[in-house]
Amino acid sequence: MSSIVKITGAASLALHAMSYLAVHADQGMTSTREVAEAFKCSEDHLKKVVQRLVRAGVIKTVRGPRGGIALARPPAKITLLEIFEAMEGPLNDNNCILGNPVCQYKECILGGLTESLNKQARAYLSKTKLSQLAKRIAGTDG
Predict the structure, then answer these.
(1) Could you give the number of structural domains in the chain?
(2) More confident position, 47 or 4
(3) How many whole angstroms separate alpha carbon 109 and alpha carbon 5?
């Protein structure tokens, strides 16, 4: 079955990994191996995701035997938009579902649907904090 709204595997892994770190924040540093095992993914793939998250300033790393990864800021200070954009680049307000800057046809067949979806996605991702996602994942959202 197909879907209009999709995100990449890397963005999905970033959101899941960040949620994992938020849920386990009281444990200090977490190894990439532990996170990779939790999500049954390649540690190498996770490390590439972590590099982007470090560049975005949402994860910090420490090398050495007691090293690992941890959130760079409190989860209540990190939005899902920051995580998404760390992986995908700026969320494009382009309304073409094909990603074209200008519609090759006289009028977009989908009308305002893509514009509406983009605005809703941006609003949700920018207002939702990592702490909210972590609570939902942990089953403690009240």
Answers:
(1) 1
(2) 47
(3) 17
